[in-house]
Amino acid sequence: MTKRDQRQNEWAKRIEAYKASGLTMVAWCSTNQVNLEQLKYWTRKLKKIASSDIVSSARFIPVTVTELDAPLAPSSLVIHVGPASITLQKGFDRQLLREAVEALTSSC
Question: Measured between alpha carbons, how far is 21 from 27 in angstroms, rounded to an integer?
Fold first, then answer.
């Protein structure tokens, strides 16, 4: 572990202790002989590092595109619920769709 990593871990533990204490930053720093400005700095820095880690861990998920057996009407919509699919046409019955989705959701 590098010195930088050690320092980050040390400050992460301090920040956790501060948050768990329920004290204000000023009170906690005074009680624990920690510089208030350093605590603020490290709180911002570690938050920034954590958010960049989340972004860098984003990845693509493979998607499979399949051809439909029959072409859809221009104003139709296909909804997939688990392994089932529902094709809606313009003017569909909303209550019927709601009931069908609830039934499929409870069985999938």
Answer: 10
Q: What angle do CA 47, 11, 36 make, to 5 degrees?
A: 90
Q: What are the average pLDDT values for consecutive 10-residue runs of the chain, which has 108 residues?
A: 90 93 94 95 90 65 74 72 80 83 71
pTM: 0.48
Residues 6+ apart with CB under 8 A from 86: 78, 79, 80, 97, 100, 101, 104
At which residue do the structure tokens 């998920």 appear?
Answer: 61
Q: Is the dihedral of CA 28, 31, 36, 42 positive or negative?
A: negative
